[in-house]
Design goal:
Layout (H helix, E strand, L loop, with lengths): L6 H25 L2 H11 L2 H15 L2 H13 L5 H14 L1 H10 L9 H14 L5 H31 L11 H15 L2 H14 L4 H14 L2 H6 L5 H23 L1 H11 L6 H20 L3 H11 L19 H26 L13 H5 L6 H23 L5 H26 L1 H9 L3 H26 L3 H31 L5 H29 L2 H24 L1
Helix pairs in contact: 1-4, 1-8, 3-5, 4-5, 4-13, 5-13, 5-15, 5-16, 6-10, 6-15, 7-8, 9-10, 9-11, 10-11, 11-13, 11-15, 13-15, 13-16, 14-15, 17-19, 17-20, 17-24, 19-20, 20-24, 21-22, 22-23, 22-24, 23-24
Length: 570
């Protein structure tokens, strides 16, 4: 055996492969609008249709591993059901046999991996000319991810290819069938492609190194070994990915066991159709197709059962996001109302944490300890993950509020609950505003414009002062003080808003800021100011009495009237 094993090429291949998987799935999530979701579901909806699609796509791509990885991405992106995913994987096992037939008939193995470079080239060049906010940009990322996926597979396979080409299968001749099954499994797991390992087996059979009986056992092993690719793709993934990987492994192992137990009958059937002695290679190709078809037929009635079992083994992880309402029964109205108010206050704090992290402000400037969503996270999560959890928390809050509404309530209790629900909606609208200006704030921070850099830090200071002030208001015990301080905080928001607009006008007049930057800055200031107002409004509805809320609203109305009269006088 003259070939050498290249460890770092294997490791690099694995890294490229995982990057490709991530980019592919992320691009799919971004692109999965209604039309795209409908298209995916249309061609994989139903057992027979999903099996047929898996067979056809694999036959075209010549790689069951690639199709299985795409299924992994679709399921991970939430646009393909578990049952349909199982159907596609079953079909891919049939589709991959086409390569074996090509090798058997013409002695040439098509290499789908050669598509990797064109995909990466087209996607990489496209990224340079596409707007990151537009769909073509995501299409280019998808192409790169698809190319990396194949390039990674090619690297992993290439790292041991010379070993595989020079491996003399005759050295294991004379051992029991279990050994050949294990060798076929391990060989395919290392090669990362069942079609490639089966091509080696066909070559060995054609050359007389192994017998037909050994070849069929190794082909069964190759079918099992191909699952390693999907298992690698699911490493560290969400439960949905793990379910796909386990379904692939289960199908191939059970199909392999059935084929192994029934090997004599299957060989006899193949011998009846093909003269094995005259054309053993063609017989092995037929055997490969035959036992995969049998596996699909056997599993077809049990796809639903398998899907349910997989959900039990890998249930969707649902973190407990609520702190107060989770264990408070709605039947005890007073306790439930208090728990709901505390939970919405918790929602407000998590929203403020999002704002602090958005503007890279140390949370210790406002909060003395970690917030619940941080504690519940097993590891440090991204800003996007925090946003998604806040949305889920709001959903649980609103569901609890809806259940409370079904109880027999006094009119004052109904009014109080409605105020709290209104506060929760204001909180979510404020975080949507913060999220909406995230990209602009990043641009201000890294801009060549000194003025925009200064404005970025001004926004940071405005937000920090507001949150510190709001924390002080919450800690006050006297409601009258809370009322007056909330009004003062609101007035400060209005003053800083006007100051920002006036300073921008002056900067524009002095040529310190360009026209497009003026538009961006004014838009960011408007959304930022509105988010700050909504924060105050939410605290008003959570802390003040109904009479104070009415007075607060009247005070704002009077302020608007006075401002309008001033504008008319000018």
């Amino acid at each position: 055996m003259t070939g050498s094993f290249e460890f770092w090429k294997l490791a690099a291949g694995l890294g490229i492969f995982l990057i490709g998987m991530f980019m592919l799935e992320d691009a799919i999530k971004t692109l999965s609008g209604k039309a795209f979701r409908h298209m995916i579901r249309l061609y994989t909806n139903g057992r027979f249709r999903s099996i047929g699609s898996g067979t056809l796509v694999t036959a075209i791509l010549q790689s069951s591993s690639a199709v299985s990885l795409m299924v992994l991405a679709f399921v991970g992106a939430g646009i393909m059901s578990m049952q349909n995913a199982i159907g596609v994987i079953m079909g891919s096992n049939i589709g991959t046999t086409l390569t074996v037939w090509i090798v058997a008939i013409v002695g040439f193995k098509m290499k789908i991996e050669s598509f990797a470079l064109p995909f990466i080239a087209l996607g990489g060049i496209g990224l340079a000319f596409c707007d990151p906010s537009e769909k073509p940009f995501q299409v280019c990322r998808l192409l790169i991810g698809f190319g990396f996926l194949f390039l990674g597979l090619d690297y992993m396979k290439g790292s041991v290819e010379s070993v595989g080409q020079n491996f003399d299968l005759s050295i294991i001749h004379g051992y029991g069938p279990w050994l050949y099954l294990i060798v076929g499994t391990l060989f395919t797991a290392i090669m990362q492609a069942s079609a490639a390992s089966i091509a080696v087996i066909l070559t060995a059979l054609y050359s007389g190194f192994i017998t037909f009986d050994i070849g069929v056992v190794m082909v069964i092993g190759a079918n099992i070994g191909t699952t390693i690719t999907v298992i690698l793709g699911s490493l560290g993934g969400i439960p949905a990915k793990k379910r796909v990987a386990l379904s692939h492994l289960t199908f191939n192992i059970v199909t392999g066991i059935v084929a192994f137990v029934s090997i004599k009958g299957l060989v006899s059937f193949v011998s009846f159709i093909v003269d094995i002695k005259a054309n053993a290679v063609m017989g092995l190709a037929l055997f490969h197709t035959l036992f995969n078809v049998i596996g699909v037929v056997l599993f077809l009635p049990f796809i639903g059962v398998l899907a349910k079992l997989l959900y039990k083994i890998f249930p969707d992880y649902k973190a407990v996001l609520t702190v107060y309402i989770n264990h408070t029964p709605i039947e005890i109205i007073e306790a439930a109302t208090s728990a709901l108010r505390n939970e919405i206050m918790h929602l407000l704090h998590e929203c403020q944490l999002y704002g602090l992290r958005l503007l890279e402000i140390d949370k210790k400037s406002v909060f003395d300890q970690d917030l619940p969503l941080e504690i519940s996270a097993k590891k440090k999560r991204s800003l996007d993950h925090l946003y998604e959890n806040i949305k889920l928390l709001h959903g649980e809050v609103f569901a609890y509020y809806s259940k409370l509404q079904s109880q027999k309530l006094e009119e004052t209790e109904v009014t109080e609950l409605d105020r709290m629900a209104f506060a929760s909606r204001n909180i979510m609208n404020s975080i949507k505003n913060f999220k909406g200006i995230r990209h602009n704030l990043d641009e201000f921070s890294s801009s060549d414009s000194v003025y925009l850099n200064d404005q970025y830090y001004t926004f940071r200071n405005r937000l920090l002062k507001l949150f510190v002030e709001m924390k002080g208001i919450q800690e006050q015990e006297d409601r009258e003080e809370q009322y007056h301080n909330l009004l003062k905080a609101f007035v400060k928001i209005e003053e800083t808003d006007k100051r920002c607009v006036n300073e921008t006008i002056s900067a524009a007049a002095e040529g310190r800021i360009q026209e497009l930057e003026i538009s961006s800055l004014l838009l960011v200031n408007r959304l930022f100011t509105q988010a700050c107002r909504l924060q105050i409004f939410s605290l008003k509805d959570l802390l003040l009495s109904q009479e104070q809320i009415n007075n607060f609203d009247r005070a704002l109305d009077m302020k608007e009237i006075i401002e309008a009269e001033k504008d008319q006088d000018h």
